[in-house]
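Session log. Operator J.P. requested a structure for one protein chain; no other inputs attached. Running the standard single-chain path with token output.
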Amino acid sequence: MRRKKKHEEHENHERWLVSYADFITLLFAFFVVMYAISQVNEGKYRVLSDSLINAFQNAPTSVMQAQTASISGTAGAMVQKGAILSSRPPRTDDPQHKLVEMKMRNIASNLQKVLEPLIKEGGVKVAQTPRGIAVEINASLLFASAQADLQVQSINVLQQVGQQLAQVDNLVMVEGHTDPLPINSFQFPSNWELSAARASSVVRLFIDTGVRAERMIAVARADTKPIAENLTEDGRARNRRVTIDILADNKEEIVELPDLKLTPVANAPGVAATGR
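Structure written below.
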């Protein structure tokens, strides 16, 4: 009898696809796991924290303190809303939080009363920020063109602002802003020197009014923080300004205050569009 021929098996040149598919699947699973562990679920974190604390309540004091310190350290690394680092999430029912909120509201209300005429003219804006209260004053109300000496008519208003700030203990940061038009004088080689001198002039007046020097911070911004387009004179006029930030004084966290229901002036129609 004739023997049957054995079926010749052809070599499979595509078997690498199986290994490749397995590799891609494992790689996908790896990145899914990495993404999952990088996301902090605050709710689950709180449950875990409470469970660990309860579990160690019967443990020796030193052990429980070590566990609590570890948990607090993890919480301190969490980034809260507004990219502000905090040792714990803000609690609106915290009495300290409410006191800070009430204090900042009172400061804003008092500043509004002092600056009300200028607010109506459109040269001043009082607003809430995540850091506290911001008072934005157009530079044309304070300084002559390309100068850093306070004008006589602006000194009285700033003295009233300083009197209000002297009654509280918050840090006060004064920022000087300019437009991008170059300046090259003997006194001010660039806009950095001009903005620094203007911020310092306001700081010195506040100190003379009674605000403690250790509470004051003078910052030069030049033209790096515009609030309007610099393509038009009106936009450049808005960017020439001095900002007074009254910072919230919560020692553990910087609270984000609720809307203060203030009336910011968007376009500052009453501001003269002349000078630097």
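Operator note: Confidence is low (pLDDT under 50) at residues 60-90, 250-274.
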